[in-house]
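Q: My collaborator sent me two sequences in one message, no labels, and asked for predicted structures for both. Can we handle them in order? The first one she listed is below.
A: Yes, handling them in the order given. First sequence, followed by its structure tokens:
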Amino acid sequence: MKTPKQPKFLSRAFTLLEMTIVIMVLIALISTGMFVTGKMDEWKLGREAAEKLRQVHTAQRMFLADNPTRLVGTITEADVIPYLSGGATALPTVKSLTGSQLGILVNSSPPVINSGTGVAYDPSGDNRDSLWDIGQ
């Protein structure tokens, strides 16, 4: 017995609908990847800031251990710099999310990033997330 042949319009090919769905999925994946990459860059800046703050905090604690009669509010950058690791000659700076360089205030405990407006710079808004702060 002969088997009937498939008509030409039922041949194995992609339909316009299938191609549209595949393109839409690819666009969704690419846009998600771009969003995640941007957030990763922000997270990296936060981690770098937290590491620098921890380094300054350690130096501040070592200075206070050697000078127990000094109040935290009277500490200057010159007091802390000799206690920084790696023979640093200046306090480290931190890059903000907008790309500007921010300093670190050592006359508070724990040290904070100086936003220049008298308020600590912490775009995450949480002092327990270990980003942009040393946590508490």
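Q: And the one she listed second?
A: Here it is, processed independently of the first:
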Amino acid sequence: MSELTAGVDEAGRGPLAGPVVVAAVILDPLRAIAGLDDSKKLSARKREMLFLQIQEKSLAWSIVEVGVDEIDEINILQATLLGMRRALEGLTPFPSLALVDGNHAPKVGCEVRTVIQGDRLEPAISAASILAKVFRDRLMNTWHQRFPAYGFDRHKGYPTAEHLRLLRENGPCEIHRKSFAPVRKLL
């Protein structure tokens, strides 16, 4: 059997609100997916289209979210690494190699290589990037229904000028990361 390689990426390390979402994908070499790229370079429509193709054509995929409470408890880097481990452990079959976007590697039961700008360079990481981004954007749109005063449907929890203004006006809600400075200052 050939070596199974998983791509791993996250969405949502920088926001002030919501979970960090991590995805892991093992692409099927016999079922090509055209148009894979860094999720940030693709339109929302293209990401949605690729999201379905990745789920249909991959050998395995896994998406996990690490919630605000865990982020606040262990910090965003540790929460991201925890999410990476959980996403990889959610793959069946389990990979022999994990290619991780960035320069931090989770401790997991296979070889791990970090790839700077991997979401642009490695198709499996691009696929994971797309799954994580689409899943997280959908979550933030759902949170917007519950907390419309914050505009989560527009900025997805990132510290935009609009979000910072709305945060000052309304105070933090339950999905704000209390360990992040702009939120902590308002508590």
